[in-house]
Design goal:
By secondary structure, this protein is of the alpha/beta class. It has 16 helices and 9 strands. A 5-stranded parallel β-sheet has the order 2-5-8-1-9. A two-stranded antiparallel sheet has the order 3-4.
Length: 331
């Protein structure tokens, strides 16, 4: 018990200096179950922030805990004297992982990392370093939230409803768009590096956040930031609103799971919002795939504000979380 409390204390948002905009983005992601990617130079705090995401996620209910325990038991991942998995999983596989280890399989099919992250977080650090084939096999589970392992005589279906959190450097040298250091990559290298991640995979990531280095003044400041438990309370309130909204929708529990058919009903915007979104897409060169993602994230921001309507301020904040969709972002 003492060790568990120590871990919770060490992984707390209050100990992260600065990066308030990144914490806000992660709060939104946790509130709506959205996938998120953090882009920034080495040492900016991407991994540190991602590891603290579970501290603001709502606690698991009994059905989730039982389902998670079954998966970990089948995989042989239950520790000694642990009868029930009560905390949300956080899985962080190395970029050398194989396709089978990620999605599951083998001669005797076993759950992979995406199933072990069910009801929790799958963190992929240095996303472009993963093999292209490994990343592509995640596309179907991200959409369907299950993975089917088929063999000649039988097939097994494992649940895979997880939050994907990814991080990456903006370029091979790591300093593209850095406020102080110059990027030394040759022309076209940034776009080539980004192209390691396919469009269909990026299409399934709702929130793109640029992480900038923390200044000396912020690092040396004595005051602590807001604690994780206070952020978690707001996340739980937003999730409760979504549970009520989707109580009659099978398989939908949060805004990230809204289907295209439901989107127009749940994410209605007024004429001012329509005009703002139209202007943003034209001026910023946002792709068509960003439209649905912006509406879903805006709905989550409205839920955090306990607002029935999606206001223009909610849309404006959601628009800024589509960095990689902007034409010319990579030069």
């Amino acid at each position: 018990m003492i060790i568990k409390l120590l871990v919770i204390f060490l992984l707390n948002f209050s100990l992260v200096k600065g990066q308030e905009n990144i914490k806000r983005a992660l709060e939104i992601a946790a509130s709506g179950g959205h996938n998120v990617i953090l882009i920034g130079p080495p040492g900016a705090g991407k991994t540190m922030l991602a590891k603290r995401l579970p501290t603001i996620l709502p606690p698991m209910n009994l059905p989730e805990a039982l389902e998670t325990t079954k998966i970990h038991s089948v995989a042989g991942k239950m520790g000694k004297n642990i009868g029930l998995v009560s905390t949300r999983p956080f899985r962080s596989p190395h970029h050398t992982i194989s396709d089978v280890a990620l999605v599951g399989g083998g001669s005797v099919p076993q759950p992979g990392e995406i199933s072990l992250a069910h009801n929790g977080v799958l963190f992929l650090d240095e996303l472009p370093e993963f093999k292209r084939t490994v990343l592509e096999v995640m596309r179907q589970p991200l959409e369907d939230r299950v993975v089917t392992v088929s063999r000649a005589k039988f097939s097994v279906e494992y649940p895979a409803s997880f939050m994907l959190v990814a991080s990456m450097n903006p370029c091979p040298c790591g300093y593209y768009n850095h406020p102080e250091k110059d990027c030394v990559c040759p022309p076209g290298t940034v776009q080539k590096y980004l192209n390691k991640i396919s469009g269909p995979l990026l299409d399934r990531i709702d929130i793109h956040v640029e992480v900038t280095p923390v200044s000396y003044n912020e690092l040396s400041a004595e005051r602590n930031s807001e604690k994780s438990n206070r952020v978690r309370i707001r996340v739980m309130k937003a999730r409760a609103i979504q549970e009520m909204r989707f109580e009659n929708s099978e398989g939908v529990h949060c805004n990230a799971q809204i289907g295209s058919k439901q989107l127009r009903e749940v994410c209605k915007i007024d004429e001012a919002g329509n005009q703002l979104l139209k202007t943003a897409m034209e001026r910023l060169g946002l792709s068509a795939r960003a439209y649905d993602r912006i509406l879903k994230v805006a709905r989550t921001i409205a839920d955090l504000d306990e607002s029935d309507q999606i206001e223009t301020s909610h849309l404006a904040e959601a628009i800024q979380y589509r960095s990689l969709d902007r034409e010319g972002w990579a030069g």
